[in-house]
Task: structure prediction
Amino acid sequence: MKTQSVRTITVLSALLAVAALVDVLPAQQRQPATQMSANIEVSPPVGKDSVKFLVVGDSGTGDRVQNEVAAQMWKARSIFPYEFAIMLGDNMYGSERPQDYARKFEQPFKPMLDANIPFYAALGNHDDPNQRFYKHFNMNGQRFYTFQKKDVRFYVLDSNYMDQDQQKWLDKELQSNAKWKIAYFHHPIYSSGGRHGSEVDLRAIVEPMFIKHGLNVVFAGHEHFYERLKPQKGIHYFTAGGSAKLRAGDILSSSGLTAKGYDAEQSFMVVEIDGDVLRFQTISRRGKRVDSGEIRLGTS
Amino acid sequence: MTKYFSASLAVFAILSVGCERVDTAEPSAAAGSAEQKPSATAPKPAPANESAGKMPAPPPPLTQNADGANAQGAATLEFKKRLDAYVKIHKEADSKVDSLKRTDDPKEISDREKALQQMIMTLRANAKQGEIFAPEYQPYFVQIVKEDFKTRSAADRKALINELPKHMKVDVNTPYPTTIPLATFPPALLRKLPDLPPELEYRLVGRSLILRDVKANLIVDVLRDFVPTIPS
Result:
């Protein structure tokens, strides 16, 4: 009798916890059938042939926290089988000796590398530009480059040094007919970060090109937290630079830019692009889903 | 090569307006403490509060030399000539060591970077500060950054300066320390400076403007006291 009561209470508690979680997410952001595997809340992808990727930002510390977050990323893959990863810069903090490549990248992400999941890196302000020659970063010796996955075109920029060559290249490459155009780079051009804030200089140069060529989504790092911004001039912005370092309490609510912010714990994202829909989920270091939602083409 | 030469001339032509009187505006202490606002893109006029005592002399007025080139044009030509000379050395060094190429071995990356670095350092063993940032050209660089700062809000100037690496020893023909971040170069300022060949880039360290060899991670030249000071 006592055992049955305990079970009933446990089940009720679990139901209440799930109900509370669902309640904090706006209706349009709810994901179907959240799965909890080994303490991680991730929904499986919806589309069969969708483009699925992992978003890693500012990860290269080589410390215990990076390893813990990387372990969650790997755990998430058992539910959400991303095919590749994008890196938003600061891939390696401090020295960049061969042993640093091992400690700050190869060891934490070993399961992904063993599973042949390619990483496509952008350069951060802490990165030696010669990282572009490192095979596992798939930069092909270029500081800025582009690649395509099905109907999604990715533009990887070097926001540390936006010279004329890069601007001309970007303006030309953005003319692609891809259904989705996604840019990612290190410095956010919109941000509520108290420490750094928006890179307005960079914004003045790249935003007109983004608008002119119909870019849909931008991912950036640099700020050590997660922020989903209110769409700016029709473009959706995410800052996800908290995959190892954390600047707790740094999101300034006074900016008026934030749609959803999370700076209580480290985090990463998993993203699916399925036809006209992009679905995203943001997972914390402890495996809690802290944000999710979808973006439809042509909406802002 | 003609590309950055032409761009330089265009920049100088624009800058030459008002060249007779050098406006040395600096943000005031009060203005400098403002919080950075994400939406603040509109340039604000700078307060006229001078504190740039350490700046190099203002650029000389526009005069024509015997060849018919004005002072700015002559300085640009000199800068271009010195860049060309450096690129020649870089290429020579590059041809003598294994070149950097795509590899999954990080040791190869650092070994090749160091080899190129050492080779250039050897070939430029007697390199001196100002070898590329020609003295006659330096005032124009300073003028460019001054003009750029005048278009920025106090908060923007402060944010820019706060991002720069500080307390770093900067010397010609020495490696850029890999443990110190490369500060983002302000894109609007970059647009105003003469273009560089792909072997080189501008970077800011403290108040200095450096020329950095990208592949060799080497400080090639330094222009000190380039970034205006902001009173605290």
About this structure: Residues 1-30 of chain A form one domain. Residues 189 and 292 of chain A are 22 Å apart (CA to CA).
